[in-house]
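Reviewers of the previous submission asked for a worked example of the structure-prediction workflow described in the proposal, so we include one complete record here. The input consisted solely of the amino acid sequence. No template or homolog information was supplied to the procedure at any stage.
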Amino acid sequence: MTSPGSSARSSTTTPSQLIAILRGLTTADAKDVGECLYEAGFRSLEVPLNSPEPLATIRVLRDLLPADCLVGAGTVLTVDQVAQCADAGAQTIVSPNTDTAVIAETVRLGMESYPGAATPSEAFAAIGAGARNVKLFPAEQVGTAGLKAWTAVVPQHIGLLPVGGVTASNIAAWLAAGATGFGIGSSLYRPGITVEDLRPRADAIFTAWETALSTRKSA
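From that input alone, the workflow returned the following structure tokens.
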């Protein structure tokens, strides 16, 4: 049986917590990539700001995809960038670091904040600034043992999303350690990938996600 802690944390796990990180996505490719990922089951897409024309790409995806798919910005480092992303239609703001001013402005503007943290101290600073989700980054540095230790002290209603090195083959192990979602980058998308190559990657990752969730709920 699952422990009370893992059961409570699993209740926050939703399709929108599986985030496709589309670093390098161009506006020209946004339609095909967005539709492919949505069809595969992804309900949250992130366009990092160090991509070509990221704000324009966010606008294309937001206009294109159904309302149940969240479109957000990644690698957001400043308060000014938060405002620019909001104007472009972003619904989520993802950062590689814990910047309380960025988090507070994101929350003030009604967007969901996913600040990066590599230590419990950073995680609690993020939570104190208003974040309801914390991005474990780099996840390989924290590790599944580190994440499991975090779950003993991080409030159960806070989402914990490993980012960095997550693949279809290790999603189950991360979920077992207490993850509530993931940011999936290079194992899913790389600039210039064809839809024919992207589709099986997306299907494999989403299937691994659903299978691991089902296994955990039945344990």
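The domain at 14-218 is CATH 3.20.20.70 (TIM Barrel). We consider this example representative of the routine output the project will generate in years two and three.
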